[in-house]
TrEMBL record:
Pathway: Carbohydrate metabolism; galactose metabolism
Keyword field contains Transferase: no
Biological process annotations from GO: galactose catabolic process via UDP-galactose, Leloir pathway
GO MF terms held by the record: isomerase activity
Keywords: Isomerase
Name listed for the protein in its UniProt record: UDP-glucose 4-epimerase
The keyword Cell membrane is annotated on this UniProt entry: no
Family label: Belongs to the NAD(P)-dependent epimerase/dehydratase family.
InterPro entries per record: Epimerase_deHydtase, NAD(P)-bd_dom_sf
Pfam families reported in the protein's UniProt record: Epimerase (PF01370)
Domain NAD-dependent epimerase/dehydratase: 3-242
């Protein structure tokens, strides 16, 4: 397939691009950046912003893509409360612009569209493992924007104009091609900063009892490729992509200390409201995509991230 990956120079985008290339697909990476320094070998760079409707029409018309992996997004829940319009502009408007571009291009075959959604759309009202048939309960402008984009993709898919799938991603971690996640809002990169001496401590929200589902970025990349292969026109596939197991923030800190051999300082901050448990039920993805998170044990994730952190 000839695949366009939006946000392809990012942490997840790099993993998806490399996975697609390894499987023999042709890949173009859409980015606002003009540099090719971080572009995976074998991919081509296409300059553009998903908010630019005219440019998206040019990109799709010129590229004649069979498929799109749409990863470009704003993705920080707390930030979204201060910038709700920006989040809807990028996450909903950008998705709309790509769908309009695919429709206008009148491609010879129905294009395939895989959308990067998020587990955050479930909110905090559910108990136990989260399943795709649970009612979403978004609790931030970020979550609202992702759910709106999901529904937009589903509605266009239902027309038969394209084959559509949305992947509700859980907590990405690990490393890809020697590149670790450096997001300062995430626990594993922050623990590695403390272990490496780049910061003097790692802070926890409360006592670190909140449980999250950590999934290796390489496993997530494989899920995107498999979703492209199985998605069918007139349908909208919806899948949780996680490890299917939960780890508390305190456990993440403990494992990071064991892997790095560094007993760094941990500071417990006054707790802020957040869901106590967010773990995905991944049986549907296992059956529908023939996918399994083979690299997503917590220790493997931290070991890969630490190796990449030290050699970056």
């Amino acid at each position: 397939m000839n695949v366009l990956v939006t946000g392809g120079l990012g942490y997840l985008g790099r993993a998806v691009t490399l996975d697609l290339l390894a499987a023999g697909h042709q890949v173009a990476v859409l980015s606002r950046a003009r540099t090719t320094l971080t572009l995976p070998g074998g991919a081509t760079l296409v300059h553009g912003d998903v908010r630019d409707r005219g440019r998206m029409r040019e990109v799709v018309a010129e590229g004649r893509f069979d498929a799109v992996c749409h990863l470009a997004a704003l993705a920080h829940g707390r930030e979204s409360f201060a910038q709700p319009l920006a989040y809807f502009d990028v996450n909903v408007g950008g998705t709309l612009n790509l769908l309009l571009a695919l429709e206008a291009a009148k491609l010879p075959t129905k294009p395939r569209f895989v959308f990067a959604s998020t587990n955050i759309v479930y909110g905090s009202i559910h108990s136990g493992a989260l399943t795709e048939d649970m009612e979403p309960h978004p609790e931030s402008p970020y979550a609202e924007s992702k759910l709106a984009a999901e529904r937009l993709v589903a509605a266009q898919g239902a027309t038969g104009a394209l084959a559509a799938t949305s992947l509700r991603l859980f907590n990405l971690a690990g490393a890809v091609d020697g590149v670790p996640d450096t997001d300062k809002t995430r626990i594993i990169p922050n623990a590695l900063r403390a272990a490496s001496g780049e910061s003097d401590r790692v802070t926890l929200n409360g006592n670190g009892s909140a449980v999250r589902d950590f999934v290796h970025v390489l496993d997530v990349a494989t899920a995107f490729r498999l979703a492209l292969e199985v998605t069918k026109p007139g349908q909208h596939g919806l899948y949780n992509i996680g490890s299917g197991t939960g780890s508390s923030m305190a456990e993440v800190v403990r494992v990071t200390k064991e892997v790095t051999g560094v007993d760094f300082t941990v500071e417990e901050m006054p707790p802020k409201p957040e869901p106590q448990l967010l773990v995905g039920d991944i049986k549907k993805a296992s059956a529908g995509l023939n996918w399994a998170p083979t690299r997503s044990g917590l220790r493997r994730i931290v070991e890969d991230a630490w190796l990449a952190w030290r050699t970056r």
